[in-house]
Design brief:
The complex is a heterodimer of chains A (about 140) and B (about 475). Chain A has 2 helices and 9 strands. Chain A is mainly beta. Chain A has a single domain, classed as Immunoglobulin-like (Sandwich). In chain A, the strands form 2 sheets. Chain A has a 5-stranded mixed sheet, with no helix packed on it. Chain A has a 4-stranded antiparallel sheet with strand order 2-1-4-7, with no helix packed on it. In chain A, β5 and β6 form a beta hairpin. Chain B is α+β, with helices and mostly antiparallel strands. Chain B has 13 helices and 21 strands. In chain B, strands 2-4-3-1-5-6-7 form a 7-stranded mixed sheet, with helices on both faces. In chain B, strands 9, 12, 15, 17, 18 and 20 form a 6-stranded mixed sheet that branches. Classes of the chains: A mainly beta (about 140), B alpha+beta (about 475).
Chain lengths: ~140, ~475
């Protein structure tokens, strides 16, 4: 129950102050009006996942951290499905992760290990099982 | 005959002008020693060019020296001849005049003498034999064999001269006999005004092919008898013509004129060919090389197509030509044009040929580097792309850049279709993190890579970046 309240508060804050909390979260995430539709609730790049939540969400990551995570949570998830995290370094595809979702809501993440050559601008395209683009997260790997 | 394509109109004028100068030198100095020496110099020069052609270095050098020295000597040694030619003629005669052969002096002298005799009303009888021998019909006379002159003829017919009643026989340019008795005409229908002189003149004319000039002592009238006819003469000109005709000088003059015309024609042709040879010797014999870096100009590009990449922007042209033409060459006179009229979207390969290169006349292409150019064409389109910040460097320790807001989020880019199809993001120029210690706003230019991309009119080339900095959570 506590988690439910926390999620509701976060959702309200996100609706009224979207940039305050998650600058590169979905600007217009699919609203949860229709519960039957897969809805991206939160998408954020972070340094790590701790306690099932993104740790130090950011848009710039030092290569010294060694890895970077793409966290996405969906609410609702009408049925068992999967999504894709397509990672691009500049405009070149880097990796494509397939992540499974379970109803009624689900949070999942993908991670890449950073190498020296990975410096530069990146983006992660989040798309559903049909390839429909749900959101794009943009970030940079720096010194 | 390819050289005709490379000849300029200046070259044609050059050749014609110098040919005419050479021809005029011939006309003015022919028959003098100056012309002979000039001919010698010309042969020396030809010999020198042949030496150069065969690579006889010393011979050609010596010939060149002698030719130059002789050209100087000719001016010094023949200065009097040159001066006399230049002083004797006016500018028009020097530039355009042709020397005329003087008229036969004998005829002139006779005509002038007759004119004087007529004016002074001194009776005279002058016989000019033709082909027939007159010895059988002439009587008396004193052989003179004196060179003909106006004074002499006048004095012979002077009334106090013992031989003034007789006729004068002129053979060639000499007075053969004086005081000669001519046979009288037996014609009964002669006018009463004709005296003995007229009757004698007609008598000889009837019997021989000689021409007899009669000057009336009473009236001063001049008459000419020939072939049983006797006619009145009005003026020296008509007498001169009759005399020329009688002596056959019309044919001689005509032949002489034709010969002169032929000589002049040959001289003009020789002058032209000599100067043309000299011109080619100078323009082609002294080949000089030059290398020019010329930008490639692309023409006839289809509307909507743009060049996104070219393997080179300039080509190096190795040009050859005469030293004078090479020295005077201006880079803007040389053009390299590639016709993109048949080019297709994507990669095109063009070979640079003579047709692509515009050169001044007299200049020849030896080599083009590179000889092949690769041009990539693309169709120009517009595409809206999201903007992403290209962060570089390192944030101060303990800070994280948690959020970024870019204004505008998207910009419209104009560029090649092939390029824009591969692009999904337009990045800013590198933005350094080192000095970012707290949240704020900065501006950054867009990095348009490749350079063929442009920001569409109406879109900003600079974006506003609002960033949020937080302390790193432990």
């Amino acid at each position: 129950m506590r988690l439910k309240y926390i999620l509701i508060v976060i959702l309200c804050l996100n609706l009224f102050f979207p940039q305050l909390l998650f600058a590169q979260n979905p600007r217009h995430p699919t609203s949860g009006v229709t519960k039957k539709k897969l809805t991206l609730d939160r998408a954020v790049m972070c340094e790590d996942i701790k306690d099932f939540a993104p740790h130090n969400p950011a848009v710039v990551f030092s290569i010294k951290i060694g890895k970077v995570c793409c966290y996405t949570s969906f609410d609702p998830v009408p049925e068992k499905t999967f999504i894709y995290h397509k990672w691009f370094h500049r405009d070149s595809p880097s990796t494509n992760k397939r992540l499974y979702l379970q109803p009624p809501r689900w949070a999942t993440f993908s991670t890449i290990q950073l190498r020296e050559t990975d410096k530069g601008p990146w983006r992660v395209e989040i798309s559903d099982q049909n390839g429909k683009l749900l959101y794009i997260l943009r970030f940079s790997i720096t010194d | 005959m390819s050289f005709i394509h490379y000849m300029r109109w200046q070259d044609v004028i050059d050749i014609l002008l110098n040919s005419y100068i050479l021809f005029r030198l011939y006309v003015l100095f022919r028959g003098t020693y100056v012309f002979r020496v000039l001919t010698g110099i010309a042969f020396l020069w030809i010999f020198q060019r042949i030496s150069v052609y065969f690579g006889l270095i010393l011979t050609s050098w010596v010939m060149q020296g002698i030719t130059a020295l002789l050209a100087l000597i000719i001016i010094i040694v023949f200065r009097n001849e040159i001066r006399s030619v230049l002083q004797a003629k006016n500018l028009k005669a020097i530039l355009f005049g042709f020397p005329q052969k003087s008229d036969p002096t004998t005829i002139q002298t006779i005509a002038e003498s007759v004119k004087t005799l007529s004016r002074r009303r001194i009776g005279a009888l002058i016989v000019l034999p033709a082909k027939e021998n007159l010895d059988d019909v002439l009587k008396g006379g004193i052989p003179v064999q004196g060179l003909i002159s106006k004074e002499m003829i006048t004095s012979i017919f002077w009334s106090d001269n013992p031989v003034h009643d007789g006729a004068v026989i002129i053979e060639g340019d000499r007075i053969a006999k004086v005081g000669v008795i001519l046979p009288l005409s037996f014609k009964s229908d002669l006018p009463s005004r004709y005296g003995t002189r007229h009757r004698a003149a007609l008598g000889l004319a009837e019997m021989t092919d000689a021409l007899v000039i009669v000057v009336s002592e009473e009236t001063g009238n001049v008459m000419v008898a020939k072939n049983s006819n006797i006619i009145n003469i009005h003026g020296s000109a008509s007498l001169t013509e009759i005399l020329k005709e009688h002596m056959g000088l019309h044919e001689v003059e005509s032949g002489y004129r034709q010969q002169e015309k032929l000589k002049m024609g040959i001289a003009a042709v020789v002058s032209f060919f000599f100067i043309t040879g000299m011109w080619f010797s100078f323009s082609k014999g002294l080949d000089t090389l030059i290398t020019l870096e010329i930008p490639v100009e692309y023409t006839n590009r289809k509307p909507g197509f743009r060049i996104v990449e070219a393997s080179v922007n300039t080509v190096r042209l190795h040009l050859a030509g005469s030293g004078a033409l090479i020295k005077s060459i201006q880079p803007e006179q040389v053009q390299v044009k590639l016709d993109l009229g048949h080019a297709v979207m994507g990669r095109n390969i063009f070979s640079i040929t003579q047709d692509n290169i515009t050169l001044p006349p007299g200049i020849f292409i030896r080599k083009v580097v590179p000889s092949v150019i690769e041009v990539t064409l693309d169709e120009t389109i517009k595409k809206e792309l999201p903007v992403q910040v290209d962060w570089v460097g390192e944030l101060p320790a303990g800070l994280i850049l948690s959020a970024v807001n870019i204004d505008p989020e998207n910009v419209e880019i104009v560029g090649g279709k092939r390029i824009l199809q591969t692009l999904s993001t337009i990045y800013t120029e590198k933005v350094h993190l080192e000095n970012l210690k707290e949240s704020g706003t900065i501006f950054a230019n867009l990095a348009l890579t490749p350079a063929s991309l442009n920001i569409a009119s109406g879109s900003k080339d600079k974006v506003k970046i609002a960033y949020v900095i937080k302390h790193r959570a432990k």
